[in-house]
Amino acid sequence: MSYSLIIEDYEIDLNYFLVYMRNREYSEETQKAYMHDLKHFLHGLNGKPVREVTDLDIMTHLSEKRESGAGARYRNRCQSAIRLFFKVMIKFNRCEANPAADIEKAKIEKKRKPAFLEQKFLDCCTEMVEGKYQLRDVSIIALMAYAGLRVSEIVRLNVNDWNKTAGELAIRGKGEKWRYVPLPPILHELLGQYLQHRIAPKNKKDQYAFFITQFGRRISKRMVQTIAENMLTSLSSRFPELQGMSLSAHKLRHSFATGLLRNGTDLRAVQELLGHEDISTTQIYTHVFDEAKKEAMGKIQPVLPGFVLKQR
User: Fold this and answer.
1) pTM of the full structure
2) Which of the residues are catalytic?
3) Which CATH class is domain 119-289?
């Protein structure tokens, strides 16, 4: 049976799933990824009704992905899509249980220490921004470097997410989870200046978008990355010691997190500010304590029994 015919068997189920994700305001990127992963899974069922799907069906699918060379992160994304799908099926009485509920995720190799910019370099970032839309671009870089926003969060940001009275920014992060980040007064001043010069959106869809392109549309993920890349190129030109270092927009977020921990911020507070669901994700930034640990241990002067010293 062809791929298209098998997918047609699940048309109603897929429609429920898509409507659910749209209603919960999943990003378009997530919707596309989950639909892609789910269709591949459903195709492998060869028309088997969703009510009859078992955990073995799912584990077999994930094993086939692994054997075909798919990495742990991709397989975990597939598993998340399948688990959510069956959650939706239960909600709409298409099945009674979630066969993916108790399947463990693939183990992911421990992350290496994240690369980051030292504070002296981070503080020069906004100076590197030039061009006709300098105020907008400086605002974008500042929110990544001094508030830890992801590129996707910059893109999603709306005008009403900024509450100057409360002194905070509402950020819609991964998994459609909101967090509220207090901003330093100077960032409020910067955002206020930008909004005074913000280009008027040209369509209703983008009327509330915080960052607008020269064409009157919500800024894209790629454009935010380009703004950051141009700035980082200029920064590397000014500081030769940065040349050869892997720099990207996300490194600004790494630098923000590293700076917080170096300044003594509690790990839980850093977790909240970054919007990490699991504190283990935040713990990758504790590499900043490595030098402090070495320094502390260097001050230890053990007192040992005399006979130990005589053995030398």
Assistant:
1) 0.64
2) 150, 174, 250, 253, 276, 285
3) mainly alpha
